[in-house]
Amino acid sequence: MKTAILSVGFFLLANIIGAQTTATDYTANDCSETSHNLFSELDAGKVVVIAWVMPCGSCTGPTKTAYNVAKSYESSNPGRVLFYLVDDEANTNCTSLNSWGKTNVGADISATFSSSSIKMTDYGSPGMPKIVVLGGSSHTVFFNENFSDAGNSAAIQNAINQALAAAREAG
Fold first, then answer.
1. What are the pLDDT digits (tens) for 75-93?
2. Cα–Cα distance, 65 to 96 (Å, whole number)
């Protein structure tokens, strides 16, 4: 009986935490019409930080935090940490999404997407914004959070460090 209760407890806890541990593959064209396949990028040793936005005012702070953390790796790991800005419902045109991103997040976003192929719900409940950090040849989800405030730069940095280490071990 005790074992059954513990098993149910662990199952419930895993579901509450949002235990998505493996990324969901996609192939999608970005707003520049360049095709991206997530698993190919991860297998090539890249770390992908995805931020889903509406875009909205409350999305700005956390998304900019994630962008700044991702870009902080540019000198130590050039081209290895990618920051993708994705429209949450794929209903914002690319011109508007690119403009919002450049104005509110940063001028050097790796890619922007308004594609229904990249689904926020693959990583649990929707949120504005939702940030995930993905990496390694096992296609691991190292960070998965919905934000309502300024984002957690230390947690994102830790996730990127773990993803880079996983990519090095595999390579």
1. 999 999 999 999 999 999 9
2. 21
